[in-house]
Design a protein that fits this description.
InterPro entries: Homeodomain-like_sf, HTH_RpiR, RpiR-like, RpiR-like_SIS, SIS_dom, SIS_dom_sf, WH-like_DNA-bd_sf. It comes from Mycetocola zhadangensis. Residues 125-265 form the SIS domain. GO terms for molecular function: carbohydrate derivative binding; DNA binding; DNA-binding transcription factor activity. With 299 residues, the chain is an alpha/beta fold. The chain folds into 2 domains: 2-84, Winged helix-like DNA-binding domain superfamily/Winged helix DNA-binding domain (Arc Repressor Mutant, subunit A, Orthogonal Bundle), CATH 1.10.10.10; 98-278, Glucose-6-phosphate isomerase like protein, domain 1 (Rossmann fold), CATH 3.40.50.10490. It has a 5-stranded parallel beta sheet with strand order 2-1-3-4-5, with helices on both faces. Helices cover 63% and strands 8% of the residues. It is globular.
Length: 299
Amino acid sequence: MSSRIQANLPQMSSVMVKIAELLLEHPTLPLELSITELAEKAGTSAATVTRFCRLIGFSGYVQFRVGVASDIGRGDAHESWRADIGRAFAPEDSPNEVLGTLLNAHIRSLETTARQMDLDVVVDIAQSIATAPHIDIYGIGGSAGMALELQGRLYRIGINAHCWSEVHGGLTSAAILGSDSVAIGISNTGRTEETIQMLSQAKSSGAFTISLSNSPTTPLAEVADVNVITAAPEQFLQPDDLSAKHSQLFVLDMLYLLVAQQDSIDTAAKLAASAMAVSEHRRPARRELVANDSKGRAR
């Protein structure tokens, strides 16, 4: 990658040269920083970084990062492993060692999330969700699955919840929220631009806004009225750390249960009705088949 950057130096503007010099000195920065963060570090704009990527032969920053990662992999497989998988695991670890490290990391993630949880805040959030006429839940990429999971659970107990993983639809919904609505943004890093935009729009519309991210100082948390921290202490399985998702699910489970408690009789009735509605689409358990067959033969 350095040879490609150096070959194109004569064609670069002065601001692009700043990016080039930074990357020649620190070639792995694109794997660690977003386009906005790299632009800030180079003292330029994200648009200039995009033009820089195109000048050296890539269609955009994502493709440039892939190129950098490929170069690192070819040059130093161990460093590539550390960048993509993390420092907690080594290629030579036995299956037992991988299992033990993985289990301990996930347990610590859940325990840390539980210790950091402000129960008073979570109870207030649950009460707001239970009484709101409209709930928006925003998530992009891996967090979209978390948003969809919460939406499905809430909807089943009668909460008018909607999940948005596409920014145009999410912004449209956020723009028409009222002051009695609730909007939730989910992002492990708290730096996903589309999620920040949707939650910001919801706040501008007057909705009560909530963030789920790994720090109270993330851009997403700064937008929200309240935030819940979901911890992932171990840095591995980058960039899509599954322990972070388990922490998110843990918090979402907590919220769902507290919302369900607000009117337990109504919740039970709705769960029973929804279970009945889909019962014909589920195959009976094997023991039920055996019992029914025995009854048939007995007659």
